[in-house]
Task: inverse folding
């Protein structure tokens, strides 16, 4: 059954009353703030993003300030948000905007798309949200709404399915009210057409939704076939010197936790955590860092999950005599002051371990 009112009109009418109008990047709705929010919102929920966004804007209120910052300062504020390539690309993009666009955020699709870390949907979302230019978006929320509305089977990440979804998304995008419409369809997916508990009875487009008519909205979108995530193990060394500082190493730019500061690890692929001996630890500590271990303590193992594997982390807290080799001479190693914390980008599990060590010191 089709109503006389179009898909977009019903969404816009719904949005006026039920949409989200008080998000921090909407006041003021400036290109820089919109861009930052769109990058942070990639694969991350609004409620998680808001405090990060507010801290980030407070520290870097404009593109120039962001471009002038060091990568460490940027990643420090990104710590815990995950998908750190987003933070690195954001920083590179700010520098590119300063160089290529005189510090003014570009307002043409191709120029925005050319910035590091921006794909077609993000470029369109920025155009719509920041400049009110009619643009078609296709983020995760929009994909869910459209797969249900049109009952499209198949994993949306598959090229053929994604092409269908882009065609439907363009078909429904109006040539007016761009900012409100893009926010409306994202809000509908986030708050009404949610993944596990869709509220079809209050949905403004429920009369024409095929999945609703079929009575099976949860069957859409089709999930990706996933194998069981493999489990990897590693032992992380918390080498603590006589000043209470802990040794950190900067990871390579490529790969997991690129350019973040992490703890030394015991050759994770060669030595299993349960076979590591005190002699192994003493050797690595002396050989690699010139540190003599005075005492060591095994902390509780915990699991950190990435998108494609679990990592079981066995932490070892080792008190070491003041280093004999001057670690600070290396650009990729540093004695990290836990309090007040140095401004460096840290992986979430490393940040947690450092906070736990600091908490234990305070309680003694």
Result:
């Amino acid at each position: 059954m089709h109503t006389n009112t179009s898909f977009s009109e019903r969404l816009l009418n719904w949005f006026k009353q039920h949409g989200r109008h008080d998000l921090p990047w909407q006041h003021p709705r400036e290109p820089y703030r919109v861009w930052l929010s769109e990058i942070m919102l990639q694969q991350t929920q609004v409620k998680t993003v808001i405090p990060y966004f507010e801290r980030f804007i407070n520290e870097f209120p404009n593109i120039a300030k962001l471009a002038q910052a060091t990568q460490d300062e940027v990643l420090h504020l990104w710590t815990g948000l995950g998908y750190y390539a987003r933070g690195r690309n954001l920083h590179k993009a700010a520098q590119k905007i300063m160089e290529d666009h005189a510090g003014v955020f570009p307002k043409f699709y191709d120029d925005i798309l050319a910035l590091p870390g921006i794909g077609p949907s993000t470029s369109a979302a920025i155009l719509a949200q920041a400049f009110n230019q009619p643009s078609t978006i296709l983020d995760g929320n929009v994909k869910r709404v459209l797969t249900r509305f049109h009952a499209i089977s198949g994993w949306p990440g598959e090229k053929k399915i994604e092409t269908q979804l882009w065609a439907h998304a363009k078909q429904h995008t109006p040539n007016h009210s761009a900012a409100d419409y893009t926010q409306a369809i994202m809000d509908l997916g986030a708050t009404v057409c949610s993944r596990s508990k869709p509220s079809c009875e209050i949905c403004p487009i429920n009369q024409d939704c095929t999945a609703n008519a079929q009575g099976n909205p949860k069957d859409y979108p089709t999930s990706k076939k996933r194998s069981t995530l493999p489990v990897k193990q590693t032992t992380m060394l918390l080498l603590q010197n006589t000043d209470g500082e802990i040794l950190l190493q900067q990871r390579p730019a490529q790969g997991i936790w690129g350019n973040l500061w992490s703890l030394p690890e015991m050759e994770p692929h060669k030595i299993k955590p349960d076979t590591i001996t005190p002699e192994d630890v003493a050797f690595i500590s002396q050989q690699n860092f010139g540190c003599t271990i005075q005492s060591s303590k095994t902390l509780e193992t915990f699991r950190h999950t990435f998108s494609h594997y679990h990592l079981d982390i066995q932490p070892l807290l080792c008190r070491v005599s003041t280093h004999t080799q001057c670690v600070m001479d290396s650009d990729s190693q540093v004695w990290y002051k836990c309090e007040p914390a140095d401004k460096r980008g840290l992986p979430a599990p490393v940040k947690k371990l450092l906070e736990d060590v600091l908490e234990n010191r305070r309680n003694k």
Remarks:
- The mean pLDDT is 91.
- The longest strand covers residues 310-320.
- The CA atoms of residues 357 and 363 lie 10 Å apart.
